[in-house]
Amino acid sequence: MLNMTFTLDEPGKPELATFAASDGYPFFFRRYPAAGTARGRVVFIHGVQSHGTWYSASCAKLAEAGYEVLFIDRRGCGQNVKNRGDMPGFRRALDDIAEFIRALPRDGLPVHAAAISWGGKLGVALQYRHPGLCRGLMLLCPGIVPKVRPSFFTRARIAVARVFRPSKFFPIPLNDPKLFTANVERQKFVEQDQLGLRYATARMLFGSFALDIYLRRAAKGVTIPLLLLLAEHDAIIQNEGVRAYVDKLPSNDKNVIEYADAHHTLEFEGDDHAFINDMIAWLNTHAV
């Protein structure tokens, strides 16, 4: 069930709303109405630390280009304070997204998923667990093959805690803002962000490890058109590993763009960065 709440004072003036998942969990999302007659919908899936506030500029520009944009704050993240940093499992996260998409108006508008960083794993897996919901998939520096991960010792502790203390918290190994961007102002934003997720439960982190394994078979589910955007100086993901994974996907409509001198969070590269226009151009050719 979608419940409209109020308008935010952010670029694009999005509406902040709540959605109740089938297990009763209420999570927030932003809705950016399309300018003029809508050409399609874009549902964003954020990374492990980020949330909707990080991406308001690009969402607003996509809305200006004629696309209704819906940005979900994943359960336990962003403005969702209930069970902060926790997730029952990656399948529940996938079901949240699927239930949300199925609750959207059935008016014929094509739905495209835009999955960022860690959310890229969910974007790929969604096509396997819930096929047919999306017309296309955009992956923005997806965390399919990470450079940064917990140490072996920490992973072992997480595995043990998942059995005996699943709600025990561990630090997410992305707490250096320089991993996300070279933009000093945006580094300060990340450092001071009160909604960013810096700790997660053993249950959530173990679910992330399990999702990595799931992606091996989920790859065969990606048959829809795909746009992959990469950053040359990404300190969080391995570009070559991600390229190799995407090369093996069965989709026969794949486009890959790598931005020279860019860093992991493309949103922080500047308002005039090409990635937004590239997303719009790709959407314009797939909004049928």
SS class = alpha/beta
Quaternary structure classification = single chain
Total separate domains: 1
β-strand amount: 15-25%
User: How much is the average pLDDT?
Assistant: 94
CATH topology: Rossmann fold
Indicate the radius of gyration in whole angstroms. 18 Å
CATH first level: which class? Alpha Beta
Instruction: Order the strands across the largest sheet as they lie in space.
Output: 1-2-3-5-4-6-7-10-11
CATH superfamily: Alpha/Beta hydrolase fold, catalytic domain
Q: Total number of helical segments?
A: 8
Q: What low-confidence regions span 5 or more consecutive residues with pLDDT below 50?
A: none
Judging from the principal axes of the Cα atoms, what is the shape? globular
Helical content, roughly? 25-40%
H/E element string?
A: EEEEHEHEHEHEHEHEHEH
Overall strand count: 11
Largest β-sheet summary:
9 strands, mixed
- What is the CATH architecture assignment? 3-Layer(aba) Sandwich
Description:
With 288 residues, the chain is of the alpha/beta class. It has helices spanning 56-64, 90-102, 119-129, 152-164, 184-192, 202-218, 239-247, 274-286, and strands at residues 2-7, 15-20, 26-32, 40-45, 67-72, 111-116, 136-140, 169-171, 199-201, 226-231, 254-259. The protein has a single domain, classed as Rossmann fold (3-Layer(aba) Sandwich), CATH 3.40.50.1820. It is 33% helix and 21% strand. A 9-stranded mixed sheet has the order 1-2-3-5-4-6-7-10-11, sandwiched between helices. Strands 8-9 form a two-stranded antiparallel sheet. α2 (90-102) crosses α3 and α3 crosses α6 (202-218). The longest helix has 17 residues, at 202-218. The radius of gyration is 18 Å and the shape is globular. The relative contact order is 0.15. The mean pLDDT is 94.
